[in-house]
Design goal:
Helix 7 links the parallel strand 5 and strand 6. The protein is globular. Helices cover about 40% and strands about 15% of the residues. The longest helix has 15 residues. With about 375 residues, the chain is α/β, with parallel strands linked by helices. The protein starts with 15 loop residues before the first helix and ends in a 5-residue tail after the last helix. The chain contains 14 helices and 13 strands. The chain has 2 domains: about 120 residues, Aspartate Aminotransferase, domain 1 (Alpha-Beta Complex), CATH 3.90.1150; about 240 residues, Type I PLP-dependent aspartate aminotransferase-like (Major domain) (Aspartate Aminotransferase, domain 2). It has a 7-stranded mixed β-sheet, sandwiched between helices. Strands 9-10-13-12 form a 4-stranded antiparallel β-sheet.
Length: about 375
């Protein structure tokens, strides 16, 4: 007997990240596709994790997270962005940023509610909205500069708009919103009940002297926003799946109602280790660390005949190939497969970040890798010039 099910996500299959990583492994390719480091985290963090486990921090933590870690997060945000959240009622530790985003959407979206997202859009947003009966509405970040069009956003807002989900620094485009963008968003939402869900997992990876424009910098946005960021991205421990969410008391109360039944609590020794580690302030060094990797990679690929787009933030950089006659006829999925299987470098086709598969003949590379990894990838990519 075959059980018949009606899928809640009928058009969702294996993610492009899983597909390309598997193809990279099969082909022996350098994997610059999925966004994770191939280098170790600070040994001090591992030592602190071990100490936490040996000290007996191995049972459930409080549903909201270990107090010391919430305090450290609140202090960091206050020092950098000037907005102080209440440790007890406005900060929650989560099992990764994806869980935080899902929980925020679950907390506020009712069936039929609309959520505006900006595409190319990170692939988890749309499914989470649909799982909660919501309707994703797509604003376009126009290729190749990928700037938000605020007139377009204004036209998309309706009586059914429940939330706007933003992401800066942006994955996959590596762009960063400006102060003018944040002020435009605040002005657009004034007098509405629309909630902002702000994915800021790359907050410490902003380059060339710029600063990250968090919703926490803007009182008119902070009062209506879930701010979400990631310890995994910041401290090179993506496999720990630990993040945080900050929001005003009323929003956080709803968030926690869902959080306690989605995951309840988060890995306890990780929280104690991170609370102790945050005292070192290594997040302040992250922009310089990743800018050096970006510059190293872009220098190494300067002779590669791809058109490299600016990378203002995150640990990604994209490149176009439509000008290359030999491959211009390939879709970006086909080109990504060709790079992986024939040239030995895996990347991600940017069309995967569009709900309708829009294809600008652009692919994304991750430079969160050792220099030897980036150098090897560049050496292989230079063969495109042959």
């Amino acid at each position: 007997m075959t059980i018949q099910l009606k899928s809640k996500l009928p058009n969702v299959g294996t993610t492009i990240f899983t597909t390309m990583s598997a193809l990279a492994q099969q082909s022996g390719a350098v994997n610059l596709g999925q966004g994770f480091p191939d280098f170790a985290c600070d040994p001090r963090l591992i030592d602190l994790m071990t100490e936490a486990m040996r000290a007996g921090y191995n049972q459930y933590s409080a549903m909201t997270g270990v107090p010391q870690l919430r305090e450290a997060v609140v202090e960091k945000i206050a020092n950098i962005y000037g907005h102080r959240y209440n440790v007890d009622s406005e900060a929650t530790i989560t099992a990764g940023a994806t869980q935080a985003i899902q929980t925020a959407v679950t907390a506020i979206v009712q069936p039929g509610d609309e959520v505006i997202v900006f595409e190319p859009v990170y692939d988890s947003y749309e499914p989470v909205i649909r799982l909660n009966g919501g309707v994703p509405v797509y604003a376009r970040l126009n290729h190749p500069d990928y700037r938000p069009d605020w007139d377009q956003v204004r036209a998309l807002i309706s009586s059914r708009t429940r939330a706007i989900l933003i992401n800066t620094p942006h994955n996959p485009t590596a762009t960063c919103w400006s102060a003018a963008d944040m002020e435009a968003l605040a002005a657009l939402l004034k007098g509405t009940d629309i909630v902002v869900i702000s994915d800021e997992v790359y907050e410490h990876m902003v380059y060339d002297g710029a600063c990250h424009e968090s919703v926490a910098r803007y009182p008119a946005l902070a009062e209506r926003s879930f701010l979400i960021s990631s310890f995994g991205k910041t401290y090179h421990v993506t496999g720990w799946k630990i993040a945080y969410c900050l929001a005003p008391r009323e929003l956080m109360a709803e968030f926690r109602k869902s959080h306690q039944y989605i995951v309840f609590s988060v890995h306890t020794p990780s929280q104690h280790a991170l609370a102790a580690y945050m005292k070192f302030g290594t997040h302040n060094e992250l922009a310089a660390f990743y800018q050096a990797k970006r510059d190293f990679f872009l220098d190494a690929v300067r002779d590669v005949p791809l058109r490299w787009l600016p990378s203002a933030g995150s640990y990604f950089v994209s490149a176009g190939y439509a000008h290359l006659e030999a491959v211009a006829g390939l879709s970006d999925v086909e080109f990504a497969r060709k790079l992986t299987t024939e040239y030995g470098v895996a990347c991600i086709p940017v069309s995967a970040f569009y709900h309708d598969g829009t294809d600008h003949r652009t692919v994304r590379f991750c430079f969160a890798k050792k220099e030897e990894t980036l150098a090897l990838a560049a050496e292989r990519l230079r063969k495109l010039a042959d």
